[in-house]
Amino acid sequence: xxxSSNKFKWRHKHLLGLRELTREELEFILDTAEGFExxxxxxxxxxxxxxxxxxxxxxxxxxxxxxISFGLAASRLSADVVEFTxxxxxxxxxxxxxxxxRNLEAMGIDTIVLRHGAGGAARLLSRSIDACVVNAGDGFNxxxxxxxxxxxxxxxxxxxxxxxxxxxxxxxxxxxxxRSNIWAMTKLGAEVILVGPPTLMPxxxxxxxxxxxxxxxxxxxxxxxxxxxxxxxxxxxxxxFPTIREYARFFSLTVDRMARAKSDLIVMHPGPxxxxxxxxxxxxxxxxxxxxxxxxxxxxxxxxxxxxxNQAAANxxxxx
Amino acid sequence: xxxSSNKFKWRHKHLLGLRELTREELEFILDTAEGFExxxxxxxxxxxxxxxxxxxxxxxxxxxxxxISFGLAASRLSADVVEFTxxxxxxxxxxxxxxxxRNLEAMGIDTIVLRHGAGGAARLLSRSIDACVVNAGDGFNxxxxxxxxxxxxxxxxxxxxxxxxxxxxxxxxxxxxxRSNIWAMTKLGAEVILVGPPTLMPxxxxxxxxxxxxxxxxxxxxxxxxxxxxxxxxxxxxxxFPTIREYARFFSLTVDRMARAKSDLIVMHPGPxxxxxxxxxxxxxxxxxxxxxxxxxxxxxxxxxxxxxNQAAANxxxxx
Amino acid sequence: xxxSSNKFKWRHKHLLGLRELTREELEFILDTAEGFExxxxxxxxxxxxxxxxxxxxxxxxxxxxxxISFGLAASRLSADVVEFTxxxxxxxxxxxxxxxxRNLEAMGIDTIVLRHGAGGAARLLSRSIDACVVNAGDGFNxxxxxxxxxxxxxxxxxxxxxxxxxxxxxxxxxxxxxRSNIWAMTKLGAEVILVGPPTLMPxxxxxxxxxxxxxxxxxxxxxxxxxxxxxxxxxxxxxxFPTIREYARFFSLTVDRMARAKSDLIVMHPGPxxxxxxxxxxxxxxxxxxxxxxxxxxxxxxxxxxxxxNQAAANxxxxx
Lengths: 320, 320, 320
Description:
- 3 copies of one chain form a homotrimer.
- Chain A is of the alpha/beta class.
- Chain A has helices at 23-37, 64-76, 94-106, 121-126, 144-158, 176-187, 216-219, 244-251, 255-259, 281-284, 291-317; strands spanning 14-15, 54-59, 80-85, 111-116, 132-138, 165-169, 191-195, 211-213, 225-228, 266-268.
- Chain A folds into 2 domains: 14-143 and 297-317, Rossmann fold (3-Layer(aba) Sandwich), CATH 3.40.50; 144-295, 3-Layer(aba) Sandwich (Rossmann fold), CATH 3.40.50.1370.
- Chain A has a 5-stranded parallel β-sheet with strand order 1-5-4-2-3, sandwiched between helices.
- In chain A, helix 1 packs across helix 5.
- Chains A, B, C: Belongs to the aspartate/ornithine carbamoyltransferase superfamily. ATCase family.
- Chains A, B, C: It comes from Anaerohalosphaera lusitana.
């Protein structure tokens, strides 16, 4: 099932972000995910490698979709899953997070999938415990498995990301998805264009390996892939954002704009969609959309990640 | 375990309501449930048919009891269970429901057990996705597995429903349980009498295959089965309802009324009971009560339903 | 795996409290837990004895830690786990509790792990149902598995509790942990000293097999084990408690106090810790602390309890 011919040896027992990974490492995760994707099509969608292992979904922010995806991925690998949702936790107390995690670890948990409001939380945690840590989103920093499933989906359609032009559209400054996307896509050879109003661009955008455009209409004609970020309504109303209507007029992916795009443009969205806001329904459900494929591929990618970090931990334990 | 001698072939990959089922189909579900009931008495209460399948409990309304019953039924068939409770979801947005379900489906979920506040939600969903849909209660429309466990329980005691007189007592107009009961019981040959104050009768009661009575004392003497609906306190206080005390005086199943009933009257209640309101404790816990048997039988019936819809889906996939 | 040579036969299908157990029974649980502890170190952390059994975590009070520990213990024994958290339940209605439990039992649940705000709730429940009942904390009464993991941890370090001097420090009067500790520790041969302000001592402390001290500094020098109870902030502010600062000055386990303690003092805490309140961080994380070992041992102890009560139920069912 796993491409064992690949000579590469995975060594990380944590997945904290994509910024620190090499192209070879990224490709190894994607290759491993390919092996796992077939399980989804078998009549018994189970593989044994994590039997007896325990994965905890430690979510300090709500995210039903990501939580369920990780849970199903763990379950298909025959791991047991523990849900630990701490809605009202005081996010600022790093100490509480670490004490919570150490307790879970003392109960024999093997992997912590962490969603946390503070950037760097997953890294902090990885320094304090022996269990594997998988970052499921930390503040405005990274959301590595989302970006992995994005590049997996693109690679599946185009064979490779080399030379592709990819637009990421929306509130870039507050998006960990955008950040992980930038690292994964550029390392794999794509050219990334950030699109959005100036107020929603990261302050240090010049340090990123990207170009920036404020004009959706100019960009739409030349890109191979477009990733429409979700508008976070809770951030509206400040002075970063005009009205939704105005935002949609300039940056929404409409049927009209699609008419000027390449015919094989790949349309992506991390979900959940605000239909009629950042994307029109006809486009979200249209032929160019791979939005539901992204969700499906998320399962294979998360299986690969859970499998690889546990393998690395087992190898470290054996002193290899 | 399953009565394979039964020549009938189940073809529905959704269970949306009982109104559209034939007597033969209803009996086939009950026969299948009988086969599964024995699993509950084995030392290892597991059967393998849904191993590797995923059942999601997608509950937009609270219902711990029904949710746990479906979860246990799925688990006994070796399926994995995902809980997805969306308390504060905007029930009116059908689109949100469908997007949520499509995402779950993209994650490889095989069956969606849906509880939703809007009548017709399960049917709407079944038209939009490929996964199996089981209606676990939709608005004031139907609650098919509750009615199936009711008729299963009666059949177990009497062998058949043919010719039985069955009273359903309480707030009929707002009860999906009553509605599914009416279809199941009359199709299986019983005569149904609706009992309650005129304000709580459905407006189009003349279109239903039932008779109506406003007089509990007259009905109690002649029926073989009585199904006491739960009083929904949240509906009290409007002009539909007098006080609880007054309601209880006219429609409660009391020890006094039981004294005038047939000695082998079967007393049912969908639970949870309001002791001392619609039913007195002595009656709920008495010899005629089958209330806890209903709960037990619910497991077998839900196993049968989950099994059959998945079989139908597998057969459709094979092009049979 | 289980020490079968032990001639003792466990007969209780409920674990309600430690007050009623004999020394022999307590030791049998600990011996059984030892057998299960090894499972935690195996690559596949699973044992089959409860396969097909269902354990429900019926928690009327929040306790993520205890709930997860029981869930993992059940899961390692291959049981299925159902979560039933009823936050806003009216604790005073014993009837509601019993109806809830009877319904769960009717669904074929084998063991109910009950956390409830009312002292005696577990015992009340055990009289009303056939399923096994394990008390996971009832009001101010008992928390037997917490005390079992405490004595298990001490026994592991010292071989036996005979003759050990053990201080329990803090709000004794509201602590079910303290109460279960007192029974387990004294039955196993230890001498228990309760330490805290007079306002936080139980009113009938003279009836308990303990001595009392109001002076932490006197006690710290002579004890072998110290168990620091968690300060319940929600109880502060009444007239039982001075300020936290004052409490900490008199009763906190500080580095300074540790310097005057025996060098091999065992430092315990039931968790979660209020760092800097009842215990300083350096002490909680220091060499004398066994706090995380307690958490680990909790898993083995709860596996033993779940295993033994189910065995007793099976034996009773067979008429042995």
